[in-house]
Structure formats: structure tokens, C-alpha cells
Amino acid sequence: MTTTTKQVLHPTLRYRDAHAAIDWLERALGFERRTVHEDDEGNVVHAELDFRGGLVMLGSARNPTEGGFQEIAPPPGSSSVYVVIDDPDALHDRAVAAGGGEIVRELVDLDYGSRDFAVRDPEGNLWNFGTYDPWEA
Fold first, then answer.
1. Measuring CA to CA, which residue among 65, 67, 58 is closest to residue 37?
2. Residue 66: burial class (beta carbons within 10 Å; 0-12, 13-18, 19+)
3. DSSP assignment, residue 123?
4. How many helices (H) and strands (E) would you count in the chain?
5. In a domain, 105, yes or no
6. What is the reported pLDDT for 65?
7. Residue 96 covered by a domain
8. Which domain holds residue 56?
9. What is the rounded distance in angstroms from the CA atom of residue 27 to the CA atom of residue 22?
10. How far apart are CA 83 and CA 35, in angstroms?
11. What is the pLDDT of residue 73?
């Protein structure tokens, strides 16, 4: 199996208030916006956020009857993402200080050597951060 340094998997999340989600992800977790595209009503139709070289995409949830991706997408707040980081303690403290999210698993050292924590964002998506890197396991 060949590995590549180019990211080929991109988590894609929907939010009821995508603008507020982008602001929270930046403030609480250190994401950086690469691009945000809006429709004429100001809804986020496509946004890309960078986290230390990893990219997530997100947008505003729309009525499933409008067709397209929203017909098949999971409901807002039902996603879970795992992110490899070197210093979960510092990010945990940043998330707590920023508020708005809920720490649903405090910092923990796991049997297989990872140090993890999990935070639920203001719309219910679960963000897991830990030192376990499956590429290096």
C-alpha cells in the first residue's frame, strides 16, 4: 500500500449557523479559515478550515428538499472527527478558556499510549484530539 503526504480524506460537516461554527473553531481550537463562500442570503455554501495542515470543509445546513448534498448529508451535529496533535493539554486548556463547547471526555492517558480529550462543539459535533497517530502506530 502506498502512502502520500497529500491529504485525501476531508471531513465535511454541516452547521445550522456555519458562521458561528467557523468563529468557534478558530477561537477555541485554533483552526484557520482558508476560504468561505456564501450564497446571496449569506449562507455558507462551502468553507475550508485548516488545522495544522489538515483540512475540513463545512457549510450551512439547508432544507433537504433543495436537492444536492443536503438530501444525503447527515443532520447537523452528528459528526465526529479525530485529530492527531502533539500537545492535547494546551489545546484542552484553550478550548475550556474559549467556552461555548462542552468537554465530554477530560484529558486521559489511554492503554495504547495516546493522551486524548474530546469536546462537543456548540452544535453537537464531537471533536476528539489525541497523540495517537495511526500512521506511526
1. 58
2. exposed
3. T
4. 2, 8
5. yes
6. 67
7. yes
8. 12-62+78-130
9. 9
10. 20
11. 74
- Specify if 16 maps to a domain: yes
One-letter amino acid at 119 equals V
pLDDT tens readout for residues 98-129:
999 999 999 999 999 999 999 999 999 999 99
Q: pLDDT digit string (tens) for 22-70?
A: 999 999 999 999 999 999 999 999 999 999 999 999 999 987 666 666 6
- And the C-alpha cell for 76? 447537523
**Is 4's pLDDT higher than 60?**
no
Domain contains 84: yes
Question: What CATH number does the domain containing 88 carry?
Answer: 3.10.180.10
Query: Starting from the edge strand earliest in sequence, which strands make up the sheet with 102-109, in order?
Result: 80-84, 126-130, 115-120, 102-109
Q: How many domains does the chain have?
A: 1
Asked whether residue 80 carries a pLDDT value surpassing 60, the answer given is: yes
- 11 and 57 Cβ atoms separated by less than 8 Å: yes
As given in the structure block, the three cell numbers for residue 126 are 464531537
Cell for 42? 449569506
